[in-house]
Design goal:
This protein has 146 residues and is α/β, with parallel strands linked by helices. It is 45% helix and 16% strand. It has a four-stranded mixed sheet, with helices on both faces. α3 links the parallel β1 and β2. α2 runs parallel beside α6 and α5 packs antiparallel against α6. It binds calcium ion (2 copies). The site of one calcium ion has 7 residues, from loops.
Length: 146
C-alpha cells in the first residue's frame, strides 16, 4: 500500500471535505486540498504549479487557498492566491501551519487538515466574508496525484 492511500482513510477524506464545506460558509475564499506521494521539485514551487493546474487562480476575488501535501516527503504548503496576499501580512499562514504541523508530527493527518481548513475559513472571513450570492467556485473534493 502506498503512503498516499494510508494517509487518509475514506472516512478521513469525508471529514476533510466536510471541513472545506464548513469553512466556505464563513468566507468567499475557496479552499482545496491536493495530496500526492512525492515530488522532485521544490515543494513551494510545485504547489504553485498544482495551484495553476487546478485552475485555482480563476476565482473572482483571487482568494483560492491550496493545502498541498507531499506525503512521502513529509512536506506541506499552504498557498493563497494574490487577492489574499495583497491583503494580509506575510506571516498570515504561519500560525495555521504550526498548528497543523503539531498534529502531523503525531500522525494525526486528518485532524491537522480539518483544523487547518477551519482556521483558514475563520482567518479569511475578515477580508473575504461569505456573501449571500456565493457560488462554489472550486470543487471541495480532494485532488490527488501519485
Ligand atoms: Ca464560494
Ligand atoms: Ca469550494
Amino acid at each position: 500500500m502506498s503512503k498516499i492511500t494510508s494517509f487518509l482513510s475514506p472516512q478521513d477524506e469525508e471529514a476533510v471535505v466536510a471541513a472545506i464545506k464548513e469553512a466556505e460558509k464563513n468566507t468567499s475564499g475557496e479552499i482545496r486540498v491536493h495530496i500526492e506521494a512525492h515530488t522532485d521539485n521544490d515543494h513551494y514551487e510545485h504547489a504553485m504549479n498544482v495551484f495553476g493546474e487546478l485552475k485555482m487562480h480563476e476565482t473572482k476575488l483571487g482568494n483560492g487557498v491550496l493545502f498541498y501535501v507531499a506525503v512521502n516527503d513529509h512536506k506541506f504548503v499552504i498557498l493563497g492566491d494574490k487577492g489574499i496576499n495583497d491583503k494580509v501580512a506575510e506571516d498570515f499562514w504561519d500560525t495555521t501551519k504550526e498548528m497543523m504541523q503539531n498534529h502531523f508530527r503525531k500522525g494525526a493527518f486528518k485532524q491537522g487538515l480539518v483544523d487547518g481548513i477551519l482556521k483558514a475559513g475563520h482567518e479569511l472571513k475578515i477580508h473575504f466574508p461569505y456573501q449571500d450570492d456565493d457560488t462554489d467556485e472550486l470543487s471541495n473534493e480532494i485532488s490527488k496525484s501519485s
